[in-house]
Design a protein that fits this description.
The protein has helices spanning about 25-40, 50-60, 75, 95-105, 115-130, 145-160, 165, 175-185, and strands spanning about 10-15, 40-45, 65-70, 85-90, 105-110, 135-140, 170-175. It is α/β, with parallel strands linked by helices and about 200 residues long. The protein has a seven-stranded parallel beta sheet with strand order 4-3-2-1-5-6-7, sandwiched between helices.
């Protein structure tokens, strides 16, 4: 029996509002943007022009794709809104921004970024773990960026704070097309979170 593909029409991308210390990160963001546009997948993201966030949005737009930005009023007032998006929403708070992005997306991809990126990704991974949503989460592991993070997750498994099956309840790949494919074929774990 063939495994059923998930219909993924929109992906929320969490990523840095900085560029990182190497062009490899922006290159990866451009590849992801082109891949999303080529697959007809709408990019849902934080609505700004800053760092990798602006790079991925521009890449989707340049490839003829659709971008839906969700920005906080505070960042909008500071002039951080991307002016060329297909759709823009302004929300009151960061919490509201995350809720709206989670609502709009069929899946999530985290690229390299800082604490905001990690917090957003961890929240949707936790929501999946607790069964609040069934929307796969992926890491675009550009240049091994997530290797130390994944080692920490392995440490959670070793120290019995996370069931081993949950270690693999997130998709990881350095290539955008392969990652999107993994998200489409993702099967959620039915192992309880409690050990």
């Amino acid at each position: 029996m063939a495994m059923q593909q998930r219909p993924i029409t929109s992906v929320a991308v969490f990523c840095g509002s900085n560029f990182g210390n190497s062009d490899v990160y922006a290159d990866g963001a451009r590849q992801l943007g082109a891949e999303l546009a080529g697959a007809g997948i709408t990019l849902i993201y934080g609505g700004t022009t800053k760092g990798l966030m602006g790079v991925v949005a521009d890449a989707v737009l340049n490839a003829g794709g659709t971008v839906h930005g969700v920005i906080t009023d505070r960042l909008h007032q500071r002039g951080h809104s991307h002016p060329d998006l297909s759709r823009s929403e302004i929300v009151a708070t960061l919490r509201g921004r995350k809720e709206r992005m989670a609502e709009l997306a069929d899946a999530f991809i985290a690229m390299p970024g800082g604490i905001g990126t990690m917090e957003e990704m961890m929240e949707v991974w936790t929501m999946n773990q607790l069964g609040e949503i069934d929307k796969p989460v992926g890491l675009l592991d550009i240049a091994g960026f997530f290797t130390p993070f994944l080692a920490f997750i392995d440490h959670m498994v070793e120290t019995k704070f996370l069931p081993a099956a949950h270690r693999h309840s997130i998709c990881v790949d350095p290539e955008p097309s392969a990652l999107i494919d993994k998200l489409r074929h993702f099967q959620k774990t039915d192992v309880p979170k409690w050990l």
